[in-house]
Amino acid sequence: MGVAAGAAALAGGVKPPRGPQPKPAPPVVPPDAWLREPERIYSHRGRLAVTLVAEEREAFVAGARRAAATYNGGVPGPTLIADPGDRLDVRLVNRLSRPTNLHTHGFHVSPGGNSDNVMLDVPAGATFDYRFDIPRDHAPGLNWYHPHPHGDGARQLFGGMAGTVIFRSEAERRGASAAVRDRVLVLQAPEWDTAGQLKVWSAGLLASQVRLVNGQLNPHIALRPGETERWRIVNASVSDFFDLRLDGHQLTQIAADGNPYSRPVTTDVVSLPPGGRAEVLVRSDTPGTFALHALPADHGAGFVSPDLVLATVHVEPGLRGVGGRRPFRPEPLLAPLCDLRTRPVDKRRTITMSMTGGFTIDGKKFDHDRVDQVVELNALEEWTIVNDSVLIHPFHIHINPFQVTHIDGVPVDEPGYRDTVTVRPRSSVTFRTVFEDFTGTSLFHCHIVPHSDLGMMGVFQVVDPTSPGSPLLCRLT
Ligand SMILES: [Cu+2]
User: Fold this and answer.
1) How far is the CA of 286 from the centre of ligand 1 (A)?
2) What superfamily would CATH give domain 40-169?
């Protein structure tokens, strides 16, 4: 996981050496090089209504006007901010030349009807009204929306179609994080030819893809010494693994995949598979300029991404900040873990991702009309995900998050739930999950989207054997 578990408190950043310090020269940063954020759209009185127009058009991205696949003309799309218990009405207008749809990655909602239903397609030229009823006890945190049309997902996501959704916690609504600047960082990795047209994704682009933060190349971020910021980071690339390191600093992770941690984890490197999210607290005491790196990531079979600078952080005295200089205590942003390791397991399954005979799960390519796994509503299941191939595959399941319990059969002690987990070549990950609250049909798949487009995806169906419902085991959220 790339985390050093067990740290009990926010450690903060580097400490200044004793003695008089030379005054750092203020950085010369062009005004348009500072990190921008997508527009934030808030729910009002329990409802958030938004229209998302999916369109291939020119957008200002990576410092120039380029061809892109956009929501509302932007790369990334707008940030939606709502609360558990809210209703989200999303009108998707498809101005693409091909079918699309909308997956709300991380939402614990119904997978049917016009909710998080990725089994349907919205044809070119059509409009579809989604409605997401967010449960009152939904986990607070960072989730995201992106297209999920089988066979064309990589092309649309590679072109930029992604945006974030933040669910606020009760404590946040009461102001628990008012002293912390809240930033959203959407990581994407497209690639254009010299004419500014999007290339078709291929594994060979790993070294040359452009790594973007909120559509910007190496944006600059200003921090005031002693101030704490909360960065909500999503890996919205189709195939990149981002191992993030901020030079000279440790990062304190407080949530993964839209699920709060039960304890803060202070670490040098935060790892994000495609589709994954991390919420980290960043604090610096030392003026200076520091690079936020994506470290080389080994995808297997000789594919290694280069060391890249994603953003440049300037720690400058005299900046106007949001909060005070006292260390921020993250406890109000944490949540107790509903530990499934101590609970009886209803059923165990092994799911194998393979590249023998194509990109498959359990030897089969995706079939929209075939149900691969039938599970019972509210069952606690233990799934072992085996990767028998030479490439890395991030496993994602829709609707219900999971608690990772073992890697290669060795127990791990995770501070929270995930919905996307890296399974390394010739390796396995075991997790426990409860198929809670919602019946219906949805998907599990490799989140390297070209792999799922090629068939590394399966269908699960949650059925209710004791209609109208059995008692809940424990609340995951
Ligand atoms: Cu894969």
Assistant:
1) 41
2) Cupredoxins -  blue copper proteins (2.60.40.420)
Q: What is the pLDDT of residues 373-382, one digit of tens each?
A: 999 999 999 9
In 3D, which of 87, 229, 240, 89 has the Cα closest to residue 157?
A: 240
CATH 3.40.50.720 applies to domain 340-463 = no
CA dist., res. 169 & res. 441, Å (int): 28
Where are the domains positioned within the chain?
A: 40-169, 175-333, 340-463
- Spacing, Cα 446 to ligand 1 middle (Å): 5
Q: CA-to-CA distance for 21 and 202, rounded, in angstroms?
A: 49
Give, as residue ranges, everything with CB less than 5 Å from ion ligand 1: 393, 446, 448, 451
Task: Report how far ligand 1's centroid is from the alpha carbon of 369 (Å).
Answer: 21
* DSSP-derived pairing of the beta strands 212-213 and 181-188: antiparallel
The pLDDT tens digits for 429-447 are: 999 999 999 999 999 999 9
Ligand 1 mean position to 186 CA, how many Å?
21
Distance 268 CA to ligand 1 centre (A): 26
Distance, CA of 432 to CA of 384 (rounded, Å): 9
- Which stretches of the chain drop beneath a pLDDT of 50? 1-14, 469-477
Distance 207 CA to ligand 1 centre (A): 18
Q: Tell me the CA–centroid distance for residue 396 and ligand 1, in Å.
A: 10
CATH level 3 topology of 175-333: Immunoglobulin-like (2.60.40)
Give yes or no on whether 175-333 and 340-463 have one common fold: yes
Quote the pLDDT of residue 9: 34
405 alpha carbon – ligand 1 mean position (Å): 21
Are residues 188 and 240 in contact, defined by beta-carbon separation less than 8 angstroms?
no
